[in-house]
Fold this sequence. Notes:
Blueprint: E1 12-34, E2 37-62, E3 66-73, E4 75-88, H1 94-108, H2 112-116, E5 124-134, E6 137-142
Antiparallel strand pairs: 1-2, 2-3, 2-4, 3-6, 4-5
Amino acid sequence: MKKENKYPAPHGVYIGPYLSYLSFSNDRDLEIDFNGTKEFGSLDTKLYVVNTGVQLGYQFILNNRWAIDLVFIGPSISNYRGKMTLDGTFSSDPGEIQNEILQGLIDRFPALEDLVSGETVERDGKIDTWSYGFRYQIHVGYHFGRER
């Protein structure tokens, strides 16, 4: 690695801490069919993720303008917070509807099951849990205005 790290930053192997915050929100209008009877409602979902960890990566420069950053490994401790709010007038239990929606999300995103295992969501459900996270990524950058 001495051969690669002889160049000035940002070229070479690096290790360092990171902190990231992600926020997702979604508001959906629902049409639910109960034995031929259509009922309407809305589902407001919010998910927040905070990751803190350490990453190992490699960055190099091409043609004095392009930067490529490869993060090989980045374990983290992550906090996942979510809230689902279901509004509407339903003939059945709204908590049951929301749990079916949550199960549908778990079927589509299996890793979500580890975060919500053993938890159910009520009409205004909240999830707040800690777990391990992991990151790996590729960044490509271009430097505008640099003289050759």
